[in-house]
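Entry for the shared binder. Reason: the reviewer on the internal report wants the predicted structure included alongside the sequence.
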Amino acid sequence: MTYLFNRPETFVDEMIQGFAAAHRNHILPVDGGVIRRHKITTGQVVIIIGGGSGHYPAFGGLVGQGLAHGAAMGNVFASPSAQQICNVALAADAGGGIVFCYGNYAGDVLNFNQAQERLQVQGIDVRAVVVTDDIAAALPAERHLRRGIAGTLPVFKAAGAAADAGKSLDEVCRIAVEANVRVRTLGVAFSGCTLPGARQPLFDVAYGKMAVGMGIHGEPGLHQMDALDADGLAEMLVDKLLQDIPPVVGHSEGARVGVILNSLGSVAQEELFVVYRRVDQLFRERGLVIVEPVVDRVITSFDMAGISLTLFWLNDELEHYWLAPADTPAFRRGSVSGSLDNSEHIAAIPSAIAQQHVTAGSRDSQKAAAVILAALESAAHIVDAQRDALGRLDAVAGDGDHGIGMQRGLAAAVDAAGKARDAQAGAGTLLTVAGDAWAARAGGTSGALWGVMLCSLGHELGDVNTPDTAVVAAGVAAALREVMQRGNAQPGDKTLVDVLQPFSAALDQAVARDASIADAWKEAADIAHDAAQETRDLLPRIGRARPHAEKSIGIPDPGAVSLALIIGAVSEVICRHCV
């Protein structure tokens, strides 16, 4: 469990502060993560990596010469927000283009895609390479659905070394893609992990058992089996990985491979060496040539007891980049040198990012904004009360942080909305400011989608008129369209769309009956509640829960439940204020 923290909601901020203080010669903190302290050649391609915290050394520990140029660092097990990613990318940008490189998780894909769009609008050429090395997450025919775990290191390193060698943006992307094609990983765990402030681990593994196919967010393994001794585990991992040799490699005899034996958290270095002893024997017996193995913590799952084994099938080009010098807080190879950057200039960059300007709304719209603020406060109250229950729902087939993420996002939304109200914002602006704050603070998939929902609704409401049922229904319909487009979810996928779609339809029907906003919202809220409960019978078809679909049968989707809870809390406010 986690013993040392002050408050769970400030854990990541304080962790980044301490990390930056401990590694002043390597990195500089910026709003949303860290960047290299050493100078980057003007016109050079830069590599921006990132993901949730709780995985150290990934992701901040891999920032430095010969590796990444910056890392966006989200909350524990939650992807960084699009704004955090943009902040880090702008701070590191050298004018030669940017490559985003990250693991294949829904929240990371959603937020990095949004950041990519925002930066491209500013004229910056941004590409993305998504890492898909986890063989437990999907069959070879669906390799694009696999998660990114410890195999992120070889891909990050190939990209970073190529960028530092002065390769073009096209070449850096080609090299990173080729590295991803050639990397495979499988992990196991003997215990769950516990988030800061949580009273129980996200999942349990029975004594004497091990979970096979672990992700890095506390997701349950694909199955459990009797725990093996060190040699037996090495043999199982090697056998499984050699059944999934990349087609570009062909046969394994004589192949040269980079090997990573990674502790997922609490497995000691000495234990890793015992396992690696047998891994080394097995590869040599099978005619493989091991090139500079890494036996260490590379990407963890907080305090999880577990390990993963990664094979990086090399060619001449990739071997050159695998062996290239690197110097980061957590990964060093060979010798590099470089001059330090101007820390005062870099530290000032985030503050130069303009804050959203608040224009005063009409008197009628300001009154509506006050009701919306009360609704957000009511939503925050219900989520605070249900945080642990939402986390337990999420832990069944996900990472267990949904309640914490919702609480964090709503707190930021309420704070931003309160300041907007004080600045005499109208309803539309207040919702937009709240949505941006929610997305920026919560990160993850739900943070991004709630940001989209509030901003879509705010755009429809505007800052002039008192919203009526038709305008609210149009805003919810717009939110539904944006969520489906951004999140690639459809009704039946076991997501919040399974609540948002019938809720929107019910509001549309109420408009046709000329119902008041209070009556319309109350009726639609009842439908939303029922729809959330009905998700218990669905199989998840996207997101982190997809590989564990059967585990979620009989359990409602946490995102759907939290949406229904918030709709219900808002209904009470609307009924009090909108008669």
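Summary line for the report: The chain has two domains: 8-331, 363-577.
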